[in-house]
Amino acid sequence: MNINPAFNYKQNRDKLFANLISIIDGVLSDNELSDSEIIYMTTWLSDSEQISDNPFVVLLQERIARVLDDGVITADEREELKGVLLEVQRSIMDMPNIDLYSKESDINLLNGLCKGIVADRQLGIDEINYLDWWLTQNGMLKRNYPGKHLYELIKSIKEDGIIEKSESELLYKAMVDFSGTDLDSGIVDGLSCHLPCDDIDNFNVIGATVCLTGNFVTGKRSLVSEIIEKAGGKVIDRVTQSADYLVIGALSSRDWRYSSHGRKIEKAIEDRDSGKSSIKITTEDILMKFLPAS
Fold first, then answer.
1. Which of 207, 227, 249, 278 suits a disulfide with 216, CB 3.0-4.6 Å?
2. Is 204 inside any structural domain?
3. How do residues 47-91 score in pLDDT, each as one tens digit?
4. Nearest to 57 by CA among 92, 90, 22, 83
C-alpha cells in the first residue's frame, strides 16, 4: 500500500506539535525551569526539522538563544522564558488543522509530557501529581497502552501516601522507557519504547515463533529474521495468539513510533494481559543476548 507523502508529512508534523505542547507542560509541571530543561528544549527543537519554520517555534528558539547567549540565566530570564513557553503553547493549540483530539494525538501528548518531566533528570512530587492528574483526565489512555502502565504505577506508588526514592526512580525509568528519552545516555529522542516489556531470564529461540517490530540496531528486519531463522526460530509478520515473542527494535523514528509499531505492541499486550496468549514482549538487546554465537 502506498502512503501519500503529504499525509505522512502532516501526521509527523502533528506529532511534533503535540509533543511540543506537552513538553512545555512537563517542564513547567513543577513551576520551575532549570538549566537542564532549557537545554533540553533547545536541543529537541533543533532536532525537530519538520516544524522548524513555524513562526511560534522560531520565536521560541530565538528567545531561548537570547537567554543562553551570555552563558548566564538570570531569575528574570527564567520567568520571561516561562511566559514565552506558555504563549507558544497556546498559539500552537489555537492553530487550525492540527490533530490534537485523536487517540494517536493523546499518545503523542503523553509522550511529550513524559519527555518534559524527565528533562531535568529528576522526578519531584509536583511532577508526579501532575502526571497523575493528567492521566486521570484521560479515560482512554489510563485504561489502555501505554498510559495504563504509567497510571497504575503512579496509583501504586501513591497508595500509602509516601513516595520512596526507589518508587520515584521506578516511575522515572518507566517514563524514560516510554518516551525514548534517556538523557543520562545523551539521547534526547529516538529510543524505542521499552515500557511494556516482560522480564525474561531466558530466550530459547529454537522452535519459537517470533514477531519483529520497529527498527533494529543489528540491521534491516530481514537480516534479524535471517539470524533468528538460522538459530532455529520462525519469524511471522504480525502478532498472533500462537506467537511466543514480540521483539522491539532498539531504534525508533517519529515516522512509525505509534503506527504499525504501536499497534503490534497493543495487540501483544491485549493478548498477553487477557490470557489469550502467552506471548512475551522483549527487546532487541535481550534477543541478541540469548542468541547462540554464530
1. 249
2. no
3. 898 999 999 999 999 999 999 988 889 999 999 999 999 999 999
4. 92
* CATH number of 286's domain: 3.40.50.10190
Question: What is the number of structural domains in the chain?
Answer: 2
- How far apart CA 153 and CA 285 sit, in angstroms, is 25
Look at residue 258 in the predicted model and tell me its pLDDT. 46
Mean pLDDT of 140-154: 87
Is the pLDDT assigned to residue 23 strictly greater than 70?
yes
Predicted pLDDT at 214: 81
Cα end-to-end span (Å), the chain: 36
Range 24-48 burial, b when 16+ CB lie within 10 A, else e: bbbbbbbeebbeebbbbbeebbeeb
Would you state the cell numbers that stand for residue 113, as one nine-digit string? 509530557
The answer to whether the beta carbons of residues 60 and 88 sit under 8 Å apart is yes
Same domain? For 118 and 34 the reply is yes
Provide Rg for the chain, Cα atoms: 20
Q: Let me know how long the chain is.
A: 294
Cα separation, 236 vs 70, in Å, equals: 55
Q: Is residue 175 within 8 Å of residue 150, measured between CB atoms?
A: yes
For residues 236-257, average pLDDT: 77
Looking at the fold, whether 178 and 213 belong to one and the same domain comes out as no
Q: How far is it, in rounded angstroms, from Cα 14 to Cα 31?
A: 26
Query: What digits encode the pLDDT tens for the residues 254-287?
Result: 443 445 556 787 788 888 888 899 999 888 888 9
Indicate the average pLDDT of the chain: 86
